[in-house]
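User: My collaborator sent over this chain with a note saying "see what the structure looks like." That's all I know about it. Can you take a look?
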Amino acid sequence: MVEQIVTSINGYLWSAPLIIFICAVGLYFSVRTRFLQIRHVKEMIRLLFSGKSSNEGVSSFQALAMSLSGRIGVGNIAGTATGIAFGGPGAVFWMWVITFIGAASAFVESTLAQIYKEKQDGEYRGGPAFYIEKGLGWKWFAVIFAVATLLAMAVLMPGIQANAIAEGVSNAFGIESSITGLVVVLLMGLIIFGGVKRIARVAEFLVPFMAAGYLLVAIAIIAVNFDRIPEVFTLIFKSAFGAEGMFGGILGSTIMWGVKRGLYANEAGQGTGAHPAAAAEVSHPAKQGLVQAFSIYLDVFLIVTATAFMILFTNSYNTVNEKTGEVLVENLKGVESGPAYTQAAVDTIIPGFGSGFIALALFCFAFTTIFAYYYIAETNLAYLVKGKQRKLAMTILKIVLLGSTFYGSVKTAGTAWAMGDIGLGIMVWLNLIAILLLFKPANIALKDYEAQLKQGLDPEFNSTKLGIKNAEFWANGYRTDKKDEKKHAANE
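Assistant: Without extra context I'll predict from the sequence alone. Here is the result:
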């Protein structure tokens, strides 16, 4: 009964209108910003390593790592496999497309998060709830988003990550899911009770390490199957447009699964990446907007593509027509879609290594994603709960998230994914409407940044000068209080 309700809600949220809306908003932002995702790639890379942390905020790279820890999760391994299982190889192409146009959406939401951020308890806080209230003046809408995000991040979505960890460990080492779930909960508790700074430090170390190892294995698989490169690319592009015979009848599913899994992986427009973006210490909002836009390139064009190539280059996948149940391709008889596809792919070059390696990769990817979820949930709770009640509310949040993490580890994969998709769908609908209505201040920030760059300056933001209201943090320029302190100290 519960599964039927979940599936029904999921079907409404992820109907054709949402897919069209996501693509339309991304294209609109791309055109209005003159395709900043192409024009400013060099600047994006430069900004990755130029920022420094402060007592109040994390560095640009730490904020990037925090957002990547949320983006590089199960969606990159299990999600990519699921997309191919129900959308065919052509789904990979649509993952690329939604990522390219989504980079503009990622810039807009992250820039807005910086513009309307505020300082709470000595730390920067921001995100969709903050820019909805301050930018649109719709407190009720901001509260709805904050509550929906709390539900998604603390209850619905951690289960996907925990389920994938438990499944991967079970396949590789035969360990019961309940035991794996307990270990994950214990480790997670050590991190989330340490605050945002500890989360940032763990992400800064673990994300680059795990991504590098994963890419090396993918490169090895491609190298071994080098002669198949033209064949695989032809299969992806032909299948993407229904030109490949065996996949021609599922073109609608190909596009839907490609967009859905692409969005799940890159999170552009979802609003999640905006939360760590607001925590960064930068002199201009557009700086972190550009860094966050680049982060979805790193996520999808490297990690998701690596997963897809491992699966396709080794034919380690099955594809089913979701509507009719017809099996279109069955290269792995009796194997359920998910991490097992990638495990089988790795086993083709190092027999017996695949299960253990993917289990470790899943653990790293999914583990960091769960604590990114916690940070996002914490930020929205900080928006909703003020004063003395906040500390108690934060403790309850930690307990709820740890509980849902354990619960997800022992649930079936299908139910976990469906519940996660509901949480994602609600957030996407609400956030896309907000950033579409708030494009103007983000575009003003971009133009101001570009103008200062042309003058050879290190851009600094002043919301008052630019006529952007309710951006109190930037009202008198960038951190004038600290500049004055430094000048005062130098004079003394």
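A starting point for your reply to your collaborator: The chain is about 75% helix and 5% strand.
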